Amino acid sequence: MKNLSKIGAYLVLIVFGFIMIYPLLWMAAASFRSNAEIYTSIGLIPKRVIWDGFVEGWKGSGQFTFGTFYANSFLLVVPTVIGTVVSSVLVAYGFTRFQFPLKKVLLAVMIATLMLPHAVLIIPRYLLFRNFGWLDSYLPFVVPAFLGGYPFFIFMMVQFIRGLPSELDESAKIDGCNSFTILTRILMPLCKPALFSVSIIQFIWLWNEFFNTLIYVNSVSKFTLQLALRMSIDATYDIQWNQIMAMSLLTMLPCMIIFFLAQKHFVEGISTTGLKG
């Protein structure tokens, strides 16, 4: 009976897993179909395979290929992720290991910013970045990342570093380490799971970002993949959906590859930041 119940549980999980992944499989199959078959079929096997979806889709709008949009996405995402990790660690280290005036008030204010609706911040941010002359660039994403502009990740790091024993710091001070050395040589190696979590979540969020890039980036030459996909749909009345599906599939690949390569550290970081503190 125990083996039967286990087999039944596995079968249920397989069925639900297939249901969850079916849209992704259908999108991959649609990359090799004609428009007529995409509109009329929900199966996974194309009746007539069309091979030019990836080749023609990669050409983009003609003036810029999807290679340009891929490079733009990395130019936006990679510096922003690096800035987020660096600033989150530094700010969290200050909140957890140092005593200074209004520490609790500043921490409460930082956490309170998480409660602000995004719609409230759109206009003030736009006016601020416009006055700085940062519009039509990636600076509205990169600069706030290096200045601690993502409190969610700071809070994650605060929760993790709080769980690390302060005796480590005291032992390092006895050995002659200063505060920066304690952070870089003692605490950061122990924070690796949390750092992976911050990096992966921020990478996926920014890679899939559409609304903010639509507001701040105006030049087609600086469009990210998400804006390029939307432009491809708007470009012509006769939309070749197999090309859209093919480019959508390629757009998803970096997030999927990074997640599966760092899945172990990601799950560990999420669990420990939730339990420690």
From TrEMBL:
It is a multi-pass membrane protein. Keywords: Cell membrane, Membrane, Transmembrane, Transmembrane helix, Transport. It holds the Pfam family BPD_transp_1. Belongs to the binding-protein-dependent transport system permease family. SUPFAM superfamilies: MetI-like (SSF161098). Residues 70-262 form the ABC transmembrane type-1 domain. The chain crosses the membrane at residues 7-29, 69-93, 105-126, 138-161, 182-207, 244-262. Its main location: membrane. This is Carbohydrate ABC transporter permease. It is found in: Cell membrane. The keyword Lyase does not apply. The keyword Disulfide bond does not apply. It comes from Paenibacillus sepulcri.
